[in-house]
Design brief:
Largest sheet: 10 strands, mixed
Number of strands: 25
Strand content: 25-35%
Helix content: 10-25%
CATH superfamily of the domain at 212-361: Alpha/Beta hydrolase fold, catalytic domain
Number of helices: 9
CATH class of the domain at 212-361: Alpha Beta
Structural class: alpha+beta
Distance between the termini: 56 Å
Radius of gyration: 28 Å
Strand order of the largest sheet: 5-4-7-6-8-9-10-11-13-12
Shape: elongated
Amino acid sequence: MGGPQKWAAWSPLILPCCGAVQKVAWPSTPCISAWMVAFGKQVCFARLGCFTDDVPWAGTTERPVAKLPWSPEKINTRFLLYTKKNPNNFQEITAINPETIGYSNFDASKLTRFITHGFIDQGEENWLSDMCRVPMFEVEDVNCICIDWSSGSRCQYTQASNNIRVVGAEVAYFIDVLKERYGYSPSKVHFIGHSLGAHAAGETGRRRPGIARITGLDPAQPYFQNTPIEVRLDKTDAEFVDIIHTDSAPTIPYLGFGINQAIGHLDFYPNGGKQMPGCTRDFVACNHLRSYKYYSDSIISPDGFLGYTCASYDIFEAGNCFPCPQNGCPQMGHNADKFKDRVTSGIQKLYLNTGDAKDFARWRYKVSVAISGKSRENGYVNIALYGTGGITRQYEIFKGTLKPGDTYTNLIDVEVNVGTVTKVKFLWNNNILNPTLPKLGASQVTVEPGEDGHVYVYYCENLKFISVIPALVYIRNNIVYTRIAISSMYKKENFELPFPKILIYIFKEKL
């Protein structure tokens, strides 16, 4: 899946089983001792072994249409190597001709990251190579190998969902050759797969135990949801398996393409895992594609994308899983494996929110504002955070009836890691010109970052209520302005602001 979708290719999902076995003539090749035998429900390849279309691969509720995978030659799995020495142009290498690896810039002393695509995509599409070049090579020196199996992905979905078994076997064979020729350990391999490609990674891991890590980017749902672990990606397929779910609504009727069940050591459900901010159903693949965009952003946001362990997204949004526990929160994406030694044996579902466009990383804070004043007023309270890491935009903490003596709390997901919080900006606005000149302030502001739970408290008892006195209202360039006088116990100043923007003042941390 991914890229422009050819929806006609999905039609077999709702067709009855129509048989699968085909007799295929096998061409002789000078460089491969290969053979294929098709009989009954099995097909065999010399390098890769045998594949069946029997249960659980077909004939089940989850996989009603039986298909045997195509031959390795027809699928034509290609390995495209990028390194810091050749970041802009790949070197095509193959385990069938291992000399191509020796002649290339492959470095056996370094980690290898395989990246592959899903249904209808192709391995030379920009997102694969871009992930290698920018940002991966900006932060690390690795062998980055893009796997192109587009010849086996641009077909009916039921066929492609079986072709990935051969793709996974090809990668396992490639790892075997690396081990035999270069003494290269599977513990230095990380396989990143999107959609169907995630299940190809699972096949690789099942065949080649000891792979360090597999990352599933919204693993495909149809023909894999609720299937046995030998059919789909599972946490048993590598030492560490992390999953990003971005399109996990049911395929029927919502056209969700990503698996919903938790299948890894860590399963991240950003924004609840079903509807991503910035996506609409006008582009039905948008949610599905967000998984690799989040992963790419996570490479250059080493402290972003914190996932909070929670029973559900609704509970997460209610703030009941905040802040991170004492042993910390894992990070979704590239740096998830930093948490692998703290993973428990059970299923761990994690939730977080993202932005609606690049840059997607967000940092969660809990902000409480204690209101001071003499009377209730309708309006809203906004807060902006200042810190050693940057400044946020304004975020709404509460909107409605503000009552002096009450404290209003909200969780906000901000666009920058503020770092050590040094001050906050407080804005109160009642959106109307009130002749009674209402006076409201904040006696205390509390800020708690989700990452470490450190609480920053800002006491404001030394500030008198701020008087906002409209001295003049006028129009300039079709914008209504008001000139106001702002007074406190320290100073009196005049400001010119677009009406009805009333007041912004800064609470500094009490020393």
